[in-house]
Write a structure and sequence with these properties.
A hairpin with a 7-residue loop joins strand 2 and strand 3. The protein has a 5-stranded antiparallel sheet with strand order 1-2-3-5-4, covered by helices on one side. The protein is α+β, with helices and mostly antiparallel strands and 115 residues long. It is globular, with a radius of gyration of 14 Å. It has a single domain, classed as HIT-like (HIT family, subunit A), CATH 3.30.428. It has 2 helices and 5 strands. Bound molecules: guanosine-5'-monophosphate.
């Protein structure tokens, strides 16, 4: 069996995280190295490595994750001012944890294009 990812350990409560939301399908927690005043991650509990491994049958799950993102951006007070939802996929995009995750970043002005 392959080694658990750090996010699987957070799902299994083997390592602590500041959890903002949890249900049967997903988990949201603050990023340990925030890149903005608000920076949290939303992950599926299902083991999906990246966008590359999302299947058609995951459509409801992914839709649910975005519904959770919308709710949390309201709770965090960034829904009106704006925020970015980012998912890094693979080496060129600097994905460091091989478990699908959506960064939600807000609370400051951002530039485009990203670095
Ligand atoms: P990636 O580079 O894969 O898109 O993003 C991984 C993110 O996970 C990074 O922003 C990093 O700060 C965050 N991260 C890595 N390890 C931990 C951890 O143990 N706890 C939390 N809360 N975030 C983590």
């Amino acid at each position: 069996m392959s080694e658990k990812t750090i996010f699987q350990k957070i799902i299994d409560k083997e390592i602590p995280a500041e959890i903002l939301y949890e249900d049967d399908l997903c988990l949201a927690f603050r990023d340990i190295m925030p890149q903005a005043p608000t920076h949290f991650l939303v992950i599926p509990k299902k083991e999906i490595v990246s966008v590359n491994e999302i299947e058609e049958s995951d459509a409801t799950l992914i839709g649910h994750i975005f519904s959770v993102i919308r709710k949390l951006t309201q709770d965090e007070g960034i829904a009106e001012s704006g925020y970015r939802v980012v998912t890094n996929c693979g080496t060129d995009a600097c994905q460091t944890v091989p478990h699908l995750h959506y960064h939600v970043i807000g609370g400051r002005n951002m530039t485009w294009p990203p670095g």
